[in-house]
Specification:
single chain, alpha/beta, Amidase signature (AS) enzymes, 11 strands, globular
């Protein structure tokens, strides 16, 4: 069942939140050894939340729009008293003293928090191979990556462990794994969803958003999480737009531009074909569709890999072995910090810290970081000009389907190119969503991306829903038919342990 159908059944009394939860926990217990989507399953916390929802229904109260819906959280969202690791050794033993705003809002809406999902360490990666706890596997083919950095959240939804999961998107970390796992992944406008309680990667780019099996479920989750938060200085003060009511409005009369630069070199032929099929479906549904050129999008990757590492190097300086997390003792404070960071951070995180520190250093700031910020402005202006004549834009989400483990780990540039289609939207601060649109020659899912201007979620949702209605079938995963890989560690289903 979809999240909205489950919530409706629980709110009406046709089902209990407790029964819904136990069904999902049983699936996680049976199959997550094959996928490794979770770092931690918070079964007892979720059971207490389910009891509260059922008690509210029994009293005749409305527990909220997500009543009884199991939800998984990316393990870079703070949860009070529950380990939050960012899949890094350096946060070993840290239990936040507060909840992220999105967590508070989800629980208030009746959602049940079933666990924390695996990610590339500190959200730095595109394959979930950089986790200190080992990789998450793609439910459609466990020999392939689920994408990243929110690979655990995407895999949890694709595998049927939860109807909804939450991730973060700095350069494509919701949309790219959504595409590779065959689910919906939505990155909202920057500032529409509070970042309070999200462990920062690149603060001017990070945004929290939902994964779901349907566009309607993703939009429902976004409506719960969105809205002004005084605890986040970048939070948009205006009321968030109503979205669910417009999904059935169709696309008749909308103007859609297919970005030619995002269909060129490096994009697999079957991915380009599916994107063009999606454009044709929108035209058949009444939209005006044309190919458009946005040359500045070609600059996105270069600008991003200066801006994001620079902000990351600043944000990660707080992990010093003094205030929280791992501490490796040494004779002096300086040696202690060096040893803690050497042992606590993985190779990809160290690579990005060094790149960012170099870009911010004296003598190079203007040549690299400053120039990257000017390019960012060019990209935002180019999108603004294009949106003057188009309501939304269309592109592939990921240039390829899911690739094999180890295929790109020795070539950072090849790995970074996985986000070539998604990064420009983050730099502009706009909204985008990935919708499953059939499979490639290898039988693995393909995602098509709908891009919209800032606060364009309503029209974006209309287009995404139209694509969903026209999409070729994506076969579900066939988990449980093969033994779990010996290298995949099992999930700790207690409320305390981390796998």
């Amino acid at each position: 069942m979809t999240a909205l159908a489950l919530a409706a059944a629980v709110r009406s009394g046709a089902r209990t939140a407790t029964d819904v939860l136990e069904e999902h926990l049983a699936v996680i217990d049976r199959l997550d050894g094959e996928v490794a989507a979770f770092n931690l399953v918070t079964a007892e916390l979720a059971r207490a939340q389910a009891e509260a929802v059922d008690a509210a229904v029994a009293r005749g109260e409305d527990p909220g729009p997500l009543a009884g819906v199991p939800v998984a959280l990316k393990d870079n969202l703070c949860t009070r008293g529950i380990p939050t690791t960012c899949s890094s050794r350096i946060l070993e033993g840290w239990r936040p003293p507060y909840d992220a705003t999105v967590v508070t809002r989800l629980v208030a809406a009746g959602a049940l928090v079933v666990g924390k999902t695996n990610l590339d360490e500190f959200a730095r990666g595109a394959s979930t191979e950089n986790s200190a706890f080992g990789p998450t596997r793609n439910p459609h083919d466990p020999s392939r990556v689920p994408g990243g950095s929110s690979g655990g959240s995407a895999a949890a939804v694709a595998a049927g462990f939860v109807p909804i999961a939450v991730g973060s998107d700095t350069g494509g970390s919701i949309r790219q794994p959504a595409a590779l796992c065959g689910v919906v992944g939505l990155k909202p406008t920057y500032g529409l969803v509070s970042r309070y309680g999200l462990v920062a990667f690149a603060s001017s780019l990070d945004q929290i958003g939902p994964f779901a099996t349907t566009v309607a479920d993703a939009v429902a989750c976004l409506e719960v999480m969105a809205g002004h938060d005084p605890l986040d200085s970048t939070s948009i003060p205006e009321a968030s737009p109503a979205l669910q009511g417009v999904l059935a409005d169709g696309v008749d009369g909308l103007r859609v531009g297919v970005v030619s630069e995002l269909l060129g070199e490096g994009v697999a032929p079957e991915v380009a074909t599916r994107t063009r099929q999606a454009a044709e479906a929108l035209a058949a549904a009444g939209a005006t569709v044309e190919e458009v050129s946005v040359p500045a999008t070609r600059l996105g990757l270069s600008a991003y890999y200066l801006i994001a590492p620079a902000e990351a190097s600043s944000n990660l300086s707080r992990y010093d072995g003094v205030r929280f997390g791992l501490r490796v003792d040494a004779p002096t404070t300086g040696e202690m910090m060096e040893r803690t960071r050497t042992e606590g951070f993985g190779e990809e995180v160290k690579r990005r810290i060094m790149l960012g520190t170099y870009a911010l250093s004296a003598g190079y700031y203007d040549a690299y970081y400053g120039k990257a910020q000017r390019v960012r402005t060019l990209i935002a202006r180019a999108f603004a000009e294009t949106y003057a004549d188009h309501d939304v834009l269309l592109s592939p989400t990921s240039p390829t389907t899911a690739f094999a483990f180890g295929a790109k780990t020795d070539d950072p540039m090849a790995m970074y190119l996985n986000d070539v289609c998604t990064i420009p939207t983050n730099l502009a601060g706009h909204a985008a969503v990935s919708v499953p649109y059939g499979v490639g020659d290898d039988g693995l899912p393909i995602g098509v991306q709908v891009l919209a201007p800032a606060l364009g979620e309503a029209v974006m949702g209309r287009v995404a829903a139209a694509l969903e209605r026209s999409a070729p079938t994506t076969p579900p995963p066939t988990l449980g038919s093969r033994p779990a890989d010996a290298t995949t560690s099992g999930t700790d289903t207690s409320a305390e342990g981390v796998r």
